[in-house]
Design brief:
Blueprint: E1 9-15, H1 19-33, E2 45-51, H2 58-67, E3 72-76, H3 83-93, E4 98-101, H4 113-118, E5 126-130, H5 144-157, E6 171-174, H6 175-180, H7 191-198, E7 206-210, H8 225-276
Helix pairs in contact: 1-2
Bound molecules: guanosine-5'-diphosphate-alpha-D-mannose and magnesium ion (MG).
Magnesium ion (MG) is lined by residues 103, 105, 107, 216, 221.
Subcellular location: Endomembrane system; Endoplasmic reticulum
InterPro entries: DPM1-like (IPR039528), Glyco_trans_2-like (IPR001173), Nucleotide-diphossugar_trans (IPR029044)
Catalytic activity: a di-trans,poly-cis-dolichyl phosphate + GDP-alpha-D-mannose = a di-trans,poly-cis-dolichyl beta-D-mannosyl phosphate + GDP
């Protein structure tokens, strides 16, 4: 097994009740990394599952995978819940300088992991798996209502970032960029968007990798109406985060202009007023 120092790449997987998906996920990730043309060595890569006390056999599956020689470990949280906070926890625990986040349910193809990891560098501190790139399409079985919600959510984020798919759950960030982010909103599902803004990732520091978003292999989605409301709250916070200084500057300009206008107006009126009395 790889030594602690040799780990350069960490794959963080938030997971809740995903036992059935963990074995195919981990074995496919390492199979992709062991290919001769992989740009990233399997020995320098670890997989971290962040599970919220699913108690569905996930711990036993990971233990079995470890015995088979896979560099995978599982963090079981018992007091916290939620996708974004699980990702943040995984990034905090990661040993690699290049950290990738992906879903457990195989909607993010494990075969893309090597190229996603290799796309990160000191100049490209963020890699984004995008469903809106050239030549890719959402899986044809993806429900229409999810496509509509996804497009609406993307539209609302347009003023915040130039990234083509900031809603994506398939993304990576370099450790040094992650450490710059302050006050992350770890509620909800859209941690990539929060990181893009709060780690101050410049547009030219984002590498985009188009991929086709598949359908869930097993189990069910945890994206509920509550998650969508949380997204709107997160957007409001990010708009304020990004534009509040602009609002303050505009308010100051407005007050100064108003003051000058009133002074000119009263200055012009008062001599007449004196003459009349
Ligand atoms: N630890 C933990 N993991 C969670 C939780 N909720 C969800 N997850 C894990 O997060 C991953 C994504 O959850 P899904 O429930 O499969 O989400 P989705 O509807 O497929 O949404 C995905 O696609 C969206 C784009 O349409 C993304 O915006 C979203 O982040 C996610 O990647 C899965 O591995 C799931 O087990 C939680 O409360 N805790
Ligand atoms: Mg899913």
């Amino acid at each position: 097994m790889a030594t602690r120092q040799s780990i350069q790449y960490s794959v963080v997987v938030p997971a809740y009740r995903e036992n059935g998906n963990l074995r195919p996920l981990v074995t496919r990730i390492f199979a992709a990394l062991r290919r001769v043309d992989s740009p990233v060595p399997a020995e320098q890569t670890e997989v971290i599952i962040v599970d919220d006390n699913s108690r569905d056999g996930s711990v036993e599956t990971v233990r079995q995978l470890q015995q088979e020689g896979f560099n995978v470990r599982i963090i079981v949280r018992t007091t916290e819940r939620g996708l974004s906070s699980a990702v943040v926890r995984g990034f905090q625990e990661a040993q690699g300088d290049n950290m990738l986040c992906m879903d457990a349910d195989l909607q993010h193809p494990p075969e893309y992991v090597p190229s996603m990891l290799a796309s990160m560098s000191p100049t490209h501190t963020f890699v984004l798996g995008t469903r809106y790139g050239k030549g890719v399409e959402m899986d044809k079985d993806w429900p229409v209502h999810r496509r509509i919600i996804s497009s609406g959510a993307r539209l609302l984020a347009l003023p915040l970032t130039t990234a083509s798919d900031p809603m994506s759950g398939f993304f990576g960030i370099r450790k040094e960029a992650f450490l710059k982010a302050r006050g992350l909103n770890a509620d909800g599902f859209k941690i990539a968007l929060d990181l893009l803004i709060k780690a101050h990732v410049a547009p030219n520091a984002i590498a985009e990798v188009p991929f086709s978003f598949g359908v869930r292999a097993e189990g069910e989605s945890k994206l509920t109406g509550k998650v969508m409301i949380k997204y709107l709250e997160q957007l409001a916070e990010l708009y304020w985060y990004k534009f509040s200084s602009l609002v303050v500057v505009l308010a100051i300009i407005f007050v100064v202009l108003l003051f000058l206008l009133l002074r000119t107006w009263f200055g012009a009126v008062s001599p007449d007023a004196k003459q009349r009395y």
